[in-house]
Amino acid sequence: MSAVERKRHLTVTGRQIHIREESEKDQRVCPVCGERGLRVLKVTVATHVPEKFWSHLTEGFYFCSNPQCEMFYFNNVSKTYFLKDEVKTRFGLKERQPPRPICYCLQVTEEMIEREIIEKGCCDSLEDIVAFTKAGTGKWCLTTNPSGKCCREYLGLVVDKYLQMARGTSAERAVRSVAEQLKQPMLTIELAVDGMTCEGCEQAVRSAIESLGGTALSVSYREGRAIARIPVSVTVDELLATLDSMGYRARTERVTRGT
Predict the structure, then answer these.
(1) Residues 123, 115: Cα–Cα separation, whole Å
(2) Which structural domains are found in the chain, ordered by start?
(3) Is 85 buried (19+), middle (13-18) or exposed (0-12) by CB count in 10 A?
(4) For each of the chain's 259 residues, which pLDDT tens digit applies?
């Protein structure tokens, strides 16, 4: 179906967009670019859209992380759409002009990371980047980051870009060193989780895991269980504390290490 033939819907400000057919069959698919979105909680969306649109919000929103796509938040069930310039917060990877935010918890921009790596040449380890910029050390990503996830997931993309820029310069070795460290091993943690009573709770637990830079392999409120993959730089205690802060008492059943 061509763009001309696609169904048309309005965004929250009344702008017309053409909807991809596949997004009407799969609520996870961005209606503009067709890529799969990231599930976000209602509270995350509410933090980043103007208050006058709060009445439009329900659970079931997704965030489009495609840097080239103008869609920001979408709900294919309620047909509610927010384009990039209809929200309050800039998402660094979608922005072409500075400042481009990376870590929302501690107010770190991509330009600050560039300055430390390329201009100052002071960072040749991931620890250095964290020490100089504090990126990836925040604890409120679930709401401060528009994607609901920890910025450490995007640090690799930023470093890759500067690796290309640094090629053939004195900074190349430092950037390459950081890029290798981002490919760190992961821990797979099997958890028993008390307090989940519905699918909304499942999403909250997933979001908590993702806010630490991890991946929720499975979450079931019926079984009271979750399986998470987190970077080795995140401790099991940090994961348990994050879940506890959201009202879910979790205990570790098994931990395995892998790549």
Answers:
(1) 10
(2) 7-86 (2.20.25.270), 92-181 (1.10.10.1100), 186-258 (3.30.70.100)
(3) exposed
(4) 444 456 889 999 999 999 999 998 999 999 999 999 988 889 999 999 999 999 999 989 999 999 999 999 999 999 999 999 999 999 998 998 999 998 888 788 888 877 776 666 555 555 556 555 555 556 678 889 999 887 777 776 776 676 666 666 665 665 566 556 556 678 899 999 999 998 888 888 988 888 787 888 999 999 999 999 888 778 899 899 989 888 899 999 999 886 5
